[in-house]
């Protein structure tokens, strides 16, 4: 449910694996405004592996990031996409939507979900569209319909939430001549302005002002008045092409799965949009969930594999929420935040601190395995592995066994495909065999505490293992 970037990428993942997909979207047309405009290094890697190089070619490279307005460099990241990549969200959505349609996903626009009833082997969805009410029977339902979407509410997911205490207004405006400012803290609040292709994105927060109860976007006159009060500049002569208000409320689903209903993106975790983390965390949710849901729907998955979606992604979003809340205090906390900013400015001068922050901001530091230096849970993209035909792209429909030494593993001995690779980086001394998940993360490598058979048992259904091993 939801034809935003998260729902569309998930549809692409499922259709690539041969799973039928219906996407229900309330809006009649794709959005044309750019709510988020930044892709992290990990998201860029994932999109490259899925053939979205044309989208990435449109993106402007930004080699730096910030933590609460305190900048640091990203160029030393171990990724071919080190840095952030600036591209309007509507372009990302357009590319994903076109691919989903090409792959055969059905997108129902102007259609709202009005009811959910879960049965023993299906979910009955009641929807209302241009032709009136209808019912759709689905094996599984995934709510990618945003923080106020219907799936989370109708399915009864519990959330931990905080009420809003601060509000920010933003607008895209033409005809302005104001200087760019990235994170300007002023006595009366906070202001951002950035002009690109003749359109200026302004964002403003007035310190101490109560959150306004709204049923729609603010008027441009309200944004202009607040901007003038905080900055002293008059922008009322511009022409607004997009208006928005948002606050610092948060919500995090305590579980990402309830039976045959799952959540991804803002439906699962909602927070103040700082640093583009919401979009990126959601897209990475889709990649993590896609292969697991596809394998489950096709009867190929090990029991419990689908539950690992929550196990792996919930902690990632929890960390993002903590980082966003800390940055909110640094940016919007008024004069009381200055001592903390001074200390953090000192800390960001340390190499280890910058390295830690860069790993978090790029999402490359996220692992799906035990802590420590082992390979399990690590992204294979950083290992620089090559096949006989070129760089290894981990986007297959199922797990694959990589061999780095002749004779380490051969076809017919294991219930998964075996692929010979070369370690050009020399980063895997002594490693001969790696079990790779479809999303590009290492599920097992020789030298780990568990054996390969146990690792395969966590991914594949027992009957599939038996059948494939006999082939």
What are the main properties of this structure?
471 residues; alpha+beta; FAD/NAD(P)-binding domain; Alpha-Beta Plaits; Glutaredoxin; 3 domains; 5-stranded antiparallel beta sheet; 4-stranded mixed beta sheet; 12 helices; 28 strands
Quick description:
By secondary structure, the protein is of the alpha+beta class. It has helices at residues 5-16, 41-49, 53-58, 89-102, 150-155, 220-231, 277-297, 308-332, 338-347, 351-362, 452-457, 462-470, and strands spanning 22-24, 38-39, 60-62, 64-67, 70-73, 84-86, 106-108, 112-118, 123-129, 132-138, 141-143, 159-162, 167-174, 181-186, 189-196, 199-206, 239-247, 250-253, 257-258, 261-263, 269-270, 385-387, 390-391, 400-403, 418-420, 422-423, 433-436, 442-445. This is FAD-binding monooxygenase.
* CATH architecture designation of the largest domain: 3-Layer(bba) Sandwich
- Would you tell me which CATH topology of the largest domain applies? FAD/NAD(P)-binding domain
In what order do the strands lie side by side in the largest sheet?
Answer: 14-15-16-13-17
> How many β strands by DSSP?
28
Structural class: alpha+beta
Helix content: 25-40%
Q: What is the rounded Rg? A: 23 Å
Largest sheet: 5 strands, antiparallel
InterPro entries: FAD-bd, FAD/NAD-bd_sf, RIFMO-like
GO molecular function: FAD binding; oxidoreductase activity, acting on paired donors, with incorporation or reduction of molecular oxygen, NAD(P)H as one donor, and incorporation of one atom of oxygen
Keywords: FAD, Flavoprotein, Monooxygenase, Oxidoreductase
Cofactor: FAD
């Amino acid at each position: 449910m939801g034809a935003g970037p998260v729902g569309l990428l998930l549809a692409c993942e499922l259709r690539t694996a041969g799973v039928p997909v219906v996407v229900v979207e309330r809006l009649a047309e794709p959005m044309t405004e750019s709510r988020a405009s930044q892709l992290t290094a990990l998201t860029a890697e994932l999109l490259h592996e899925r053939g979205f190089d044309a989208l990435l070619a449109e993106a402007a490279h930004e080699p730096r990031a910030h933590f609460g307005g305190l900048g640091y460099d990203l160029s030393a990241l171990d990724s071919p996409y080190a840095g952030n990549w600036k591209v309007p969200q509507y372009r990302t959505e357009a590319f994903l939507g076109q691919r989903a349609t090409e792959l055969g996903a059905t997108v129902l626009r102007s259609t709202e979900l009005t009811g959910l009833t879960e049965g023993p082997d299906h979910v009955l969805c009641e929807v209302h569209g241009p032709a009136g009410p209808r019912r759709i029977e689905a094996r599984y339902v995934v709510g990618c319909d945003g923080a106020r979407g219907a799936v989370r509410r109708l399915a009864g997911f519990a959330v931990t939430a905080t009420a809003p205490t601060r509000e920010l207004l933003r607008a895209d405006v033409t005809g302005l001549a104001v200087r760019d400012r990235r994170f300007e803290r002023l006595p009366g609040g906070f202001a951002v302005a950035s002009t690109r292709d003749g359109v200026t994105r302004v964002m403003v927060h007035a310190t101490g002002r109560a959150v306004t109860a709204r049923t729609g976007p603010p008027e441009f006159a309200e944004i202009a008045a607040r901007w003038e009060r905080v900055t002293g500049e008059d922008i009322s002569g511009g022409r607004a092409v997009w208006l928005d208000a948002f606050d610092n409320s948060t919500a995090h689903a305590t579980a990402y799965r309830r039976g045959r209903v799952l959540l991804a993106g803002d439906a699962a975790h909602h927070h103040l949009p700082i640093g583009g983390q919401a979009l990126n965390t959601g897209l990475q949710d889709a990649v993590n969930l896609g292969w697991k849901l596809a394998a489950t729907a096709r009867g190929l998955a090990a029991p419990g594999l689908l539950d690992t979606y929550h196990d792996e992604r919930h902690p990632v979003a929890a960390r993002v929420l903590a980082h966003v809340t800390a940055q909110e205090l640094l940016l919007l906390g008024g004069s009381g935040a200055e001592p903390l900013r001074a200390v953090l400015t000192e800390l960001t001068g340390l190499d280890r601190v910058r390295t830690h922050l860069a790993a978090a901001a790029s999402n490359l530091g996220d692992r799906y395995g035990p802590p420590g230096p082992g390979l399990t849970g690590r992204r294979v993209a950083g290992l620089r592995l090559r096949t006989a035909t070129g760089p290894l792209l981990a986007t297959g429909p199922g797990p694959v066994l990589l061999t780095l030494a002749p004779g380490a593993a051969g076809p017919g001995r294991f219930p998964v495909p075996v692929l010979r690779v070369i370690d050009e980086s020399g980063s895997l001394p002594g490693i001969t065999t790696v079990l790779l998940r479809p999303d590009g993360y290492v599920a097992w490598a020789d030298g780990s505490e568990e054996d390969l058979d146990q690792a395969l048992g966590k991914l594949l259904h027992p009957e599939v293992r038996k059948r494939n091993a006999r082939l």
